[in-house]
DUF2383 domain-containing protein (Xanthomarina gelatinilytica), 112 residues
Amino acid sequence: LKNFFNRKAAERYNFGHELKSEIQNFGETPKKGGSATGAAHRTWMDVKAVFSADNEESMLEEAIRGEKASVEEYNDVLNDTGLPPTTRDLVLKQKNTITQELNSIKRLEDLK
């Protein structure tokens, strides 16, 4: 389970870099501070911190909460009709990955 969470934290970190690159492709400078991927990465770091308690159910619940919040933020971004097609495709791809992971985590929780 710990390896799974470590992979997810790294994946969210990479999502942030993909989005920053997309912003730079349009000649803009990415903002520092909170973002959907930043929040997702922080959530995964929080889940990793829960490992000290070694409570798998708590870890899974926190992961589910974080993934749901991430999906909502991605939906908010996708509701922006002014997104360039390449940006929309990237955001949708990332959201779909998060949704799949959310379903995987829910299945893990059901096994507990």
In short: Residues 101 and 107 are 10 Å apart (CA to CA).
